[in-house]
Amino acid sequence: MASLDRLPLLEAQCKSFPGPLSAAIYLPLLLATGAGPAGPSPWRRHRRGRRRAPRGAESGSGAGRHSAGAHYDTAGRLREAIETLEALFSRLESAPSACAPVLALYSERLADPALAALMPTNALRNAALLPAATPLAAMVDADLSASAGLGGLVGNGSWASDLVARAQRSRSVWLLPAWETARSLGEAGGHGVAGEALAGDKAALARLWLGEAAAQALASAGRSGPCTAGQHGSGSSSASAAAASAGSTACGQLAAAAAADAAGAGPPGSGRLYPFALREFAGGHGPTDYLRFLTTDEPYKVPYVEGFEPWFVADRFALLPYDELFRGWYGDKISQVKHQAAHRFAFHVLPGAWLVHRPHAPAPAAAIFRREAGAQAHGVNALLQKTVRRFVRRSKFDHYVTHNRNLDYWQRRGQARGTYEPQRSAGFERCRSLLPWWREGGQERAD
């Protein structure tokens, strides 16, 4: 899923992965000032075809009733969006070794600019999944590119067949460790480091993260068995556990380098790349155990812990839907991973492939949450607008965070009682029931 301003990131992702790729593109359409809908704001879908560019224009069917005088200035924006996607599709179709794209444009009519700044991320993820017809699928955000190793694995028919069989037999999903570039590098520098990490091997990852000495230690550690950062570590908080568990000087060097990097005392040349969200929310990807990933060539199992939000490959029919009540970037992906874990899926790490986050301007909600600059000013201002809800005057962003925390509470309660089901739109359910590649065998394999 992506917004129009992130299409360059989607293009980079497509060029990194020579396989089928389905993307849901979001276009919020705001009512003119003073107009307000009297009915719901349903999803609007603007044509989709397998390996076909999106076409079409806005249709009035299913749009709900609106107050007299309500005016939508949509024709120009829709036309511009469609032309942009057609141009992107043409470039990708002609690019060697690029993905086989399916691009679908979804619009949503809204009266509140703050709501337009909160992309319906989980609804878009569900929409992007519908065109997928391959045995394996991975839900990966548009700002992540795939290493060369992933394309090689997917192109290996025996590997893919074996992974499908193992996923079905053991109810497993297969994690793709994610990395991100240092924000201090800026966008240009970050893209350069991302390209180096995607094209390189694990020694390159170690060098970019921990420095040249760590890259040299990696070769020694690999010969003496995998290092480990402990159950909850990501290589930064469990240095002593990593050294003790591996019992080798090389692992000790890697663990010490990771601890130094976490303390901001890494050697020159280090810290240009690091495990995803390590410095903002280590629990989100910490269980992946990045030291072990760097020092093993074998898949390994990791535990689920609260807050875990990895990207993973799964049997398509076993990839559980996303709860569409979540919008924006607070708890959205975590809720799906939690649901996957509640269905007793095991989490295994793929040792030969990884993802790298490409730098970009933050979404308005993320910019407010992390107190970053660079987001679209109108989106930030709309979310910071004060409003009263249940006799409490706060910013719309604060109300949004409270809302998502309440959703998390009700999910926990429902899972404890065995009654939780992620909210899906009627359109998603109908498409899934009618599309032939979703009808065959899906229910038995997902239960």
UniProtKB/TrEMBL annotation:
Its main location: membrane. GO terms for biological process: protein O-linked glycosylation via mannose. It comes from the Eukaryota. InterPro entries: Xyl/GlcA_transferase. GO terms for molecular function: glucuronosyltransferase activity; xylosyltransferase activity. It holds the Pfam family Glyco_transf_49. Transmembrane segments: none annotated. Signal peptide: none annotated. Residues 43-54 have a biased composition (Basic residues). Keywords: Glycoprotein, Membrane, Signal-anchor, Transmembrane, Transmembrane helix. Residues 37-70 are annotated as: Disordered. Residues 56-70 have a biased composition (Low complexity). The keyword Iron does not apply. It is found in: Membrane. The keyword Membrane applies. PANTHER family: GLYCOSYLTRANSFERASE-LIKE PROTEIN GNT13-RELATED, GLYCOSYLTRANSFERASE-RELATED. This is Uncharacterized protein. It comes from Edaphochlamys debaryana.
